[in-house]
């Protein structure tokens, strides 16, 4: 029997969700539409015409959901606040009933000994702000800082862990580039403007949070930084890697961690934009001291230069669109990494997580690292006895947690892991078709059933050690 892998005693064992994916109650207590409510109602945008109207009804079932987490043995929970629930028009005063929901949720978590981590933005921009121009407009960054201060003031006394943005790459490049995410625009110049204004929003909101919260609280951002690999060391492939690394990673961590965009990014994208939207002082405003960095990891990215690309090689794993999410990189080819895949078609490769952690240990020395998302979608179905067995997910978690443990051994300061996701939920343009949950949700009854992976992961959380993958959580 192999030895279990033991983690540091204070390591946080969590699960993650986001507001639009689980809450439902989209018209209650003063909430107004976000860009995702609008996108879901645009024919052909979301699989099966699914919406987040009900989602998994967490807004009404949060007490049961917290009890379930406690029963499993989780010690942390990462959730997002819905901007249009708290500040419906994206400006002006807050709606108290919206804030009260999150206070109740946080109090419930604390009463169960579960540490809350709040994400301020997980993609649900108030529609009114999109109507005013959305993230390509500079004003949206200032509106976000105002909203951050409202939430920080309301919850800062009881929530220690704060995350400004979740995966700004998706907001900018899937939302305004390929259009597979809300608001569904397909304009590469707008996508780059959006990226800059998301960076500015991160910096301004970090400053705003610091101004209203106790100094002990920690502020971070969650990046879905890509592990970019090449099919060969040919110069055109290495150049493709450099360009995609800039667009996936450096465009965000450059200004946030180092106060500068990668120098070559400007030349790479010159045919799309002149970057004149970057104003004097912006980089200083973005480059705020952080306490931690959140890393979201699912699969590596494999690229080549166009000359090494078989016809039609465009498998970047970010959904179907005639428009690339990668501005000015139409000649870069994306390839499927060899190996087993999850239901999303994403190759399972825990070595990528190790590589990512070690890179950011170097890129962000002194910052605590958290894996703020990692997980897998599978086509889970209940057995006739009502149980849901998901050995593939256990194997996935085992592999990735082993990679985290290895990174700690190799010197990385990783303090916690949040499994994506606590329960099955609305998987954006895929609707409810893809199940990422450790807990199975029957969408007809909304009943929750922990899958075997939830029991397995709960055991990990309780013991602080990863057992052998053969332990099925039963
Ligand atoms: O469901 C999403 C989540 O909202 C953001 N990160 C990736 C997950 C899986 O696609």
UniProtKB/TrEMBL annotation:
Reactions that this protein is recorded to catalyse: Hydrolysis of terminal, non-reducing beta-D-glucosyl residues with release of beta-D-glucose
Keyword Hydrolase in record: yes
InterPro entries hit by this protein: GH (IPR017853), GH_1_N_CS (IPR033132), Glyco_hydro_1 (IPR001360), Glyco_hydro_1_AS (IPR018120), Glyco_hydro_1_beta-glucosidase (IPR017736)
Keywords: Carbohydrate metabolism, Cellulose degradation, Glycosidase, Hydrolase, Polysaccharide degradation
Residues making up the signal peptide according to the UniProt record: none
Family of this protein: Belongs to the glycosyl hydrolase 1 family.
Active site: 167 (proton donor), 373 (nucleophile)
Keyword Hydrolase belongs to the record: yes
Database matches in NCBIfam families: BGL (TIGR03356)
Enzyme class: hydrolase
One Pfam match: Glyco_hydro_1
UniProt EC number: 3.2.1.21
GO cellular component, one term: cytosol
UniProt name for this protein: Beta-glucosidase
Annotated region (Disordered), positions in chain: 308-328
GO molecular function: beta-glucosidase activity
Positions that bind substrate: 21, 122, 166, 298, 420, 427-428
GO biological process: cellulose catabolic process
